[in-house]
Write a structure and sequence with these properties.
single chain; alpha/beta; Rossmann fold; two-stranded antiparallel sheet; 5 helices; globular
Length: 220
């Protein structure tokens, strides 16, 4: 039996987009590769995985045996899909998707022609999706992700622990953009109220360590 045998897990992964016009959008840096590694590791340990990925990002391989694969583009799309899934039970939610904090205030339904001297695009805050996740699945083990840029190890641990309290997470994976690239993915896994921290160095080891942590928490 695996660490997550018969457990139902929802994983979000990859980027979101804020649409500007028919051909242009703003987005964030996320390949979805870590989310896929987590999905594959969880499925290998017996979990039933529902996987939501951002448009254009990596999807789990055919051997991962993902039960349901959904694709979204915008933050609004993600909110709608989560609302649709609200009636389903999940033991764990791994919210690894890079959700835009700001999106364009207006979407122009046609392609804006080139040649303008200036084009001002106003941004507005997006809803806090992780708050909706906690509302929809209050008893699930919730894994949140905290991405920083140029933070020291101490700062990263501190911000990850702070985020754990703010978002009511049970586990936080804190990482720094400068330490991510290809399979390299240096990250700090914070859990049990911030008391225990594990540093991992690649997407594969982060995924394996996270599955192990989830098995421990679910067993408790």
């Amino acid at each position: 039996m695996g660490h997550l045998d018969e457990k139902s897990i929802l994983i979000t992964s990859g980027p979101t987009r804020g649409l500007i016009d028919r051909v242009r959008f703003v987005s964030n840096r996320s390949s979805g590769r870590l989310g896929c590694a987590i999905a594959e590791a969880a499925a290998a340990e017996g979990a039933k995985v529902t996987f939501i990925r951002g448009e254009g990002s990596t999807a789990p391989g055919a051997n991962a045996h993902v039960a349901k694969l959904l694709t979204v583009e915008t933050v609004g799309d993600l909110a709608e899909v989560l609302e649709d899934l609200r009636g389903e039970r999940f033991d764990v939610v791994v919210h690894a998707m890079a959700v835009l904090d700001y999106e364009p205030e207006a979407f122009l339904g046609e392609k804006v022609r080139s040649g303008m001297e200036e084009w001002v695009v106003r941004l507005r805050p997006t809803p806090k999706i992780i708050a909706k996740v906690r509302e929809y699945w209050p008893s699930a083990v919730l894994v949140g992700f905290k991405l920083e840029a140029g933070a020291s190890d101490e700062e990263l641990e501190k911000r990850g622990s702070d985020f754990m309290g703010q978002a009511a997470c049970d586990v936080v994976v804190a990482n720094d953009l400068d330490a991510v690239g290809g399979d390299r993915h240096r990250a700090c896994i914070i859990y049990r109220g911030g008391e225990v921290k594990r540093w991992e160095q690649s997407k594969g080891t982060v995924a394996a360590a996270l599955v192990e942590v989830l098995g421990e928490l679910l067993a408790d």
